[in-house]
Amino acid sequence: MVDPDPHASARSEVLGRIRAAIGPDRPRVQIPRDYDVRREHGNVVELLARRIADYRAVVRRVAAADLPDAIGTLLARRQVRIMLGPADLPEEWRAPDVEWHLDDPPLTVEQLDRADGVLTGCAVAIAETGTIVLDAGAAQGRRALTLVPDYHLCVVRADQVVGSVPEALARLDPVRPLTFVSGPSATSDIELDRVEGVHGPRTLEVLVAS
Amino acid sequence: MAGTGVTWLGTPAFPRAARGALADTQLRRNLRKATHTIRDKRAAAVAELADWERLRRAGAAIKDSVLANLDVHLERLEAAVTARGGVVHWARDADEANAIILRLVRAAGADEVVKVKSMATAEIGLNEALAEGGVRAVETDLAELIVQLGRDRPSHILVPAIHRNRAEIREIFRREMPSASPGLTDDPRELADAARHHLRLKFLSARVAVSGANFAVADTGSVVVVESEGNGRMCLTLPETLITVMGIEKVVPTWRDLEVFLQLLPRSSTAERMNPYTSVWTGVTPGDGPRQFHLVLLDNGRTDTLADEVGRQALRCIRCSACLNSCPVYERTGGQAYGSVYPGPIGAILTPQLLGDLSHPQPASLPYASSLCGACFEVCPVRIDIPRVLVHLRSRVVDARGGRSPEAAAMAALAWIMRDPGRFEAAQRAGSLARLLARQGRISRLPWPGSRWTSARDVPAPPRESFRAWWRRNRG
Amino acid sequence: MRVALFATCLTDTLFPGTAIAATRLLERLGCRVEFPLDQTCCGQMHLNTGYREHAADLAERYAAIFAGYDAVVAPSGSCVAMVREFHQDLVASPSRNGAVRHTYELSEFLVDVLGVTDVGAYFPHRVTYHPTCHSLRAIGVGDRPLRLLSSVRGLDLVALPEAETCCGFGGTFAVKNADVSTAMLADKMRCVAETGAEVLTAGDNSCLMHIGGGLSRLRVGVRTVHLAEILASTEEEPWRAPA
């Protein structure tokens, strides 16, 4: 027999089976939320720097005013020629002596692949876990931009740093495309030992500006 | 609806499959090294959070609350995903899911898909189904790639190639990877690099990707994939079409609930404070990522599992594999002996339930593949009481067998003896005759079934008198 | 205090020395010990092998026999775990659950109820302690056995490597999955031998029978002795190997 509308019948059958499995008396479950939303860490910016460094990423703390110089120094040290950035990359971050390609009009995958690196800001950073969260907002651009290039330089402002995962999630809008980045790409697939550098950027550098 | 595809046809029951694995000295060494490495690291990562036990309780309760109203949460998820431009499909079983995916891949005009490691697609045998339909599936997770290139079977939930060491991986790459240099060494860095080069072009040119999902938020329609290598980001971001297959139990009610799981999962699985990459997307975002998003909601035995009040807690599982890493049985047999894509302690309770078959000897052997030591429960981030479920499923196995076995007869006889102290004492006296078999206080050979004990261990000679006989003489 | 000894079927039958030791130890500490002769088995083997109805019969018997006591003490973490974790689900009448709540593993009873860690024992041997899985993870006896052992005069306590790993006994697991069980046993024996101890002790005769059976088979030169027997041993009445 041919099912007239397999989608509708699969949907109603699965939902029906769920209802039958649970039965008429649905358990009432209280969720205990007594875990820590904030934890006492002292200086979260310092902790963030330490935790990112634990992933073998490079971290520098700089005064906001020195940010352009710090960017220039890092890029010069890596001898990059072509850097990418989102369309709204702040003017003052675009170090001289580097060819800047902004994502406007959108760069092709080949252009992303040919660049030496990408510079972005971020939305939130989580000190405890050494995580940077990108939400495609200001100075970040679309997701592919920070994925295809082999080098990602990310600027974190001190006021973007929170202590814990719960604090970070409270600041984020889940319907924006989000990427949580904790160190360079890595794998534990060989003997369950961690090795940095697989498909995502193999080098992550972070400038924390306060 | 009973699940299909979960187990590999032809795998013998666990004791026999385990015997072969135990004799593989390379496997034993690889597993011991890997499981011990990760155990210590996990303990350290967990010890950093003073509220770990509270997080576990919250995680378990969130999952239980989802299961208690699973239909409601799935309908909300469907509505939210649809509102954001995604398309939701429902699949009763593996065949239906595979058919949906094959149809979508063909509609996108592709003959190849890139895949993010996903237990759901392994469970339904998607790669084989796609191959039959003329579509190549390229695994992009390093361990999945090792398994695929080695024409092997997975043996671990998180690290499917855990049974392979670096030297074996180098051999597989040199043999099966055209781009691998002949001088490739077994340095894990070089091996990871070889995988990068092998897959780079695939990522940049793929038109369709298939992924699983770690979580999906009912409230917002947001889907979450937790990964390490960036292969997930490649698949989730670059192709035009993304097809995500998700077990129906993966839904969580709200965005806030992830604050619990994003702490529990990385520390339990790779023993990291946070995994390198977590991607969250909601439907389709113009100008950023795939232009078409399909979410396939998979039952495949989950509703059967949900119907068992004790066994349903297996559906809390977030696939971290801490229970595998801590299990003394898994450590010695590896995952393939379980004959299922879900090995180890969680597999021993999930596989027979998803299959809905406790009478077939292979799945029926799985709940017995445990000494009930409880190490799995202790590390489970969502507090699945695996020993309790194992014991529960054992009684379902016995019920399914219908009481007709030599074991059932022996158990009934033993229970009959134990129900009456007079009979018990008579049996003690009869048993003490076994002293005649003893030399120097020990018995080294017993007839079957006792021979299964004495194959490796002596038995103490029964004493001259039982304790109750002593008691009656001295205190009675 | 009216204390009932639940000897457990295994100890009653094969290791009477352990129950005799537990009796003498508790009496020495001022308890009036009773041994209800109707007792047989807690039903653990039946339940853990899948025979729930037989287990329920035995759980009902246990509840009826031990209902009237202030405390029930058993020299087995595993049987106590069975009673505390599973009997409630198996016994039809909740009013009979008094026995469940008042059932203690021996080291729990000594430390928590009697409030002693120095029981006046003397045992001049090098000893290592294996925390059995159910003592450790199901009922959580923690370091109580170690506190008791460190107060024993003459006893040289050495730590067991990988102590918290299962020995591979697991009830019928030992015969249903004899090969895996043996592989686990081999590692446990290696760890025991590494300590240089002459005695391995634990709170469960079932695990000790398994490990001891392996040690005996391979002539390792380590003997297994239940914790109760060490704690009962004194200068006046030192521990003696069973005849």
TrEMBL record, chain A:
SUPFAM superfamilies, A to Z: NagB/RpiA/CoA transferase-like
Classification via Gene3D superfamilies: NagB/RpiA/CoA transferase-like
LUD domain boundaries: 65-208
One Pfam family cited in the UniProt record for this chain: LUD_dom
Lineage top rank: taxon: Bacteria
PANTHER family the UniProt entry points to: LACTATE UTILIZATION PROTEIN C (PTHR43682:SF1)
UniProt protein name: L-lactate dehydrogenase complex protein LldG
Automatic annotation (TrEMBL), chain B:
Residue intervals of the 4Fe-4S ferredoxin-type domain: 314-384
Domain (Lactate utilization protein B C-terminal): residue spans on this chain: 407-473
Transmembrane segments: none
Residue ranges of domain LUD in the record: 74-284
Superkingdom as given in the UniProt entry: Bacteria
Alphabetized UniProt keyword annotations: 4Fe-4S, Electron transport, Iron, Iron-sulfur, Metal-binding, Repeat, Transport
SUPFAM superfamilies linked: 4Fe-4S ferredoxins, NagB/RpiA/CoA transferase-like
Gene3D superfamilies, per database record: Alpha-helical ferredoxin, NagB/RpiA/CoA transferase-like
Alphabetical list of PANTHER family matching this protein: LACTATE UTILIZATION PROTEIN B
Record's protein name: L-lactate dehydrogenase complex protein LldF
Taxonomic source organism: Streptoalloteichus tenebrarius (strain ATCC 17920 / DSM 40477 / JCM 4838 / CBS 697.72 / NBRC 16177 / NCIMB 11028 / NRRL B-12390 / A12253. 1 / ISP 5477) (Streptomyces tenebrarius)
Automatic annotation (TrEMBL), chain C:
Superkingdom of the organism of origin: Bacteria
Domain Cysteine-rich as annotated: residue spans: 3-83, 127-211
InterPro entries hit by this protein: Cys_rich_dom
Protein name as catalogued: L-lactate dehydrogenase complex protein LldE
